[in-house]
């Protein structure tokens, strides 16, 4: 099965996070008559796959990806069924076609092809999860924990996220900002809008808090990262009356922070700001904080150059190294080995009528195969 047909088969599975919805059966069948060992790793009801070709004691190159997808939204908005995997002209349509079933298909077919033509003087591992688009706590993280227990080796890893902003081959991710979400519950005192002096308005308090949080930049960026950002994503109250000052307000902010900060440092700052507004407005502010990832940076070295070489060979583009964008599972893998991310053009990910050119999928398979072949050549040189 080629990578285009495999992508179509995977899209047909309704794997809205964290369900794998039959995708792992498709992948297991693909590897049935190969020399790959397959392990299913389950944690808290979440399913993951780990596949290895070759000995775990040999130099090991890995690929990582997820087969879970975000909801398609209103299906009536789509040109065709978002889980059809239909090929129309030169594009394949469906949820996950860009993010990132196509990349999983590409590295699976590349791994099989290389393993069947290459002496086993190195090893290939594949990490595939169904928990990336959601909480991402029982997916790749769980695979890595299992690998530690089993002494499974991995020396380098490519995550197949859609990294290219404009043209296929124009960007390789070598790091990501950290991500933190603050959930504020602001308690005031309900009252009549005609007598504001008898109430404590939590909406006004939330506005003061937003102003305090945003009145100056968190930083001006660092050597490898753009400036950190803070965005208010929600302000809500259950009050629907036009003449009632509500008792409470819920507010959410999301912060994407660079390597000038840590999650703890940002958390402490948020708590101090909330405390200042409490005293100023006589409200009570409770805050819950979720740190989904710390910033990480993989200094361009052997791995980045290896990937860039293959990208240039098949696209003619000298890819830029970047740390832009949201979080990915690379934030877990960096604790285990050097990691970079390379995949398709991401413009249509999570969108209605998500689609990708079939030529890009074949191109990605060729690039992944070339990376593995060049890694084999380097291992062979080192053995001499």
Radius of gyration: 24 Å
Query: How would a crystallographer describe the biggest sheet?
Result: 6 strands, mixed
User: Could you name the CATH class of the largest domain?
Assistant: Alpha Beta
According to CATH, the fold-level topology of the largest domain is Aminopeptidase
Distance between the termini: 36 Å
Main sheet: which strands, in order across?
Answer: 1-2-6-3-7-18
**What is the element string, with H for helices and E for strands?**
HHEEEEEHEHEEEEEHEEEHEEHEHEEH
Instruction: Label the structural class.
Output: alpha+beta
pLDDT < 50 stretches: none
Describe this structure in words.
The chain is α+β, with helices and mostly antiparallel strands and 384 residues long. It folds into two domains: 3-176 and 296-383, Aminopeptidase; 178-293, Alpha-Beta Plaits (2-Layer Sandwich). Helices cover 31% and strands 25% of the residues. It has nine helices and 19 strands. It has helices at residues 3-11, 23-30, 101-117, 140-149, 202-214, 263-281, 302-315, 330-333, 358-383, and strands at 37-43, 46-53, 60-66, 87-88, 91-93, 123-129, 156-159, 171-173, 175-176, 178-187, 191-192, 229-236, 244-245, 248-257, 284-293, 296-297, 320-322, 339-341, 355-357. Strands 1-2-6-3-7-18 form a six-stranded mixed beta sheet. Strands 12-14-10-15 form a four-stranded antiparallel beta sheet, covered by helices on one side. The protein has a three-stranded antiparallel beta sheet with strand order 4-5-19. The longest helix has 26 residues, at 358-383. The mean pLDDT is 96.
């Amino acid at each position: 099965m080629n990578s285009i047909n495999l992508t179509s088969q995977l899209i047909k599975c309704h794997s809205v996070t964290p369900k794998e919805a039959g995708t792992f059966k498709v992948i297991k069948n693909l590897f049935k008559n190969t020399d790959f060992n397959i392990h299913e790793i389950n944690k808290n009801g979440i399913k993951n796959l780990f596949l290895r070709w070759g000995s775990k004691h040999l130099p090991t190159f890995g690929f990582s990806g997820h087969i879970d997808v975000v909801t398609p939204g209103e299906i009536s908005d789509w040109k065709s069924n978002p889980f059809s995997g239909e090929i129309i002209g030169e594009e394949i349509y469906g949820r996950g076609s860009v993010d990132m079933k196509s990349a999983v298909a590409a590295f699976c077919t590349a791994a099989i092809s290389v393993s069947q033509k290459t002496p086993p003087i190195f090893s290939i591992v594949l990490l595939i999860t169904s928990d990336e688009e959601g909480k991402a706590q029982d997916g790749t993280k769980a695979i890595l924990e299992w690998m530690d227990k089993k002494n499974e080796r991995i020396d380098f890893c490519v995550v197949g996220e859609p990294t290219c902003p404009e043209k296929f081959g124009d960007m390789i991710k070598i790091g990501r900002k950290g991500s933190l979400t603050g959930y504020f519950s602001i308690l005031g005192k309900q009252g009549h809008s005609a007598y504001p002096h008898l109430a404590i308005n939590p909406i006004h308090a939330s506005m003061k808090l937003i102003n305090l949080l945003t009145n100056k930049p968190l930083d001006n960026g660092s050597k490898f990262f753009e400036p950190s950002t803070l965005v208010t994503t929600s302000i809500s109250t259950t009050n629907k009356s036009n003449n009632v000052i509500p008792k409470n307000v819920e507010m959410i902010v999301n912060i994407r922070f660079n390597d000038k900060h840590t999650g703890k440092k940002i958390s402490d700052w948020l708590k101090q700001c909330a405390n200042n507004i409490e005293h100023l407005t006589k409200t009570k502010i409770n805050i819950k904080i979720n740190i989904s990832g710390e910033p990480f940076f993989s200094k361009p070295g052997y791995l980045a150059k290896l990937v860039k070489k293959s990208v240039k060979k098949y696209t003619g583009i000298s890819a830029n190294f970047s740390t832009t964008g949201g979080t990915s599972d690379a934030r877990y893998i960096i604790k285990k080995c050097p990691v970079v991310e390379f995949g398709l053009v991401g413009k249509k990910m999570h969108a209605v009528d998500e689609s990708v050119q079939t030529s890009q999928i074949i191109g990605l398979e060729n690039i992944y195969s070339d990376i593995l072949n060049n890694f084999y050549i380097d291992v062979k040189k080192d053995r001499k």
